[in-house]
Amino acid sequence: QVQLMESGGGLVQAGASLRLSCVVSGRTTSGYPMGWFRQAPGKSYEFVAAINWRDDGTKYADSVKGRFTISRHSAKNTVYLQMNSLKPEDTGIYYCAEYDRLSLGDEYNHQSEYDSWGQGTPVTVSS
Questions:
Q1: Sign of torsion, CA 100 111 50 96?
Q2: pLDDT, tens only, 45-90
Q3: Which of 16, 89, 97, 127 could form a disulfide with 114 if both were Cys (CB 3.0 to 4.6 A apart)?
Q4: ∠ at Cα 104 (96, 61), nearest 5°?
């Protein structure tokens, strides 16, 4: 059983930065890709970014390219999301999730492709 725990969210002004962390526990090795999703108030989950655990290949939503960076530290079993130049539309609850196959496929941005989820960490960006 894999358990994921997010942290690092908060309330910031537009243009500020935050770094989210997701600690993965319950396994001896981490071979599956990881992703970040967010849920804005009144909306469904939106894909943000994903990374292959083994080879560091990454994917990003168009809305965050150039501003957000996903990375990992395998020895710490931790995935990070560095968020720069934050905008009010980035507001939402951010979740990390584990992909259901060993490498990211064409549907890497679909919620249904991820089978383990954290509890979420809230991010609020004021204008």
A1: negative
A2: 999 999 987 777 999 999 999 999 999 988 888 999 999 999 999 9
A3: 97
A4: 60
Q: What's the chain's length in residues?
A: 127
Strand ranges (DSSP E) for the chain?
3-7, 11-13, 18-25, 34-39, 45-51, 58-60, 68-73, 78-83, 92-99, 114-117, 121-126
Please tell me the number of Cα atoms within 13 Å of 115 on its side-chain side.
7
- Residues 44, 98 contacting (CB under 8 angstroms): no
Q: What are the helix and strand counts (H, E) for the chain?
A: 0, 11
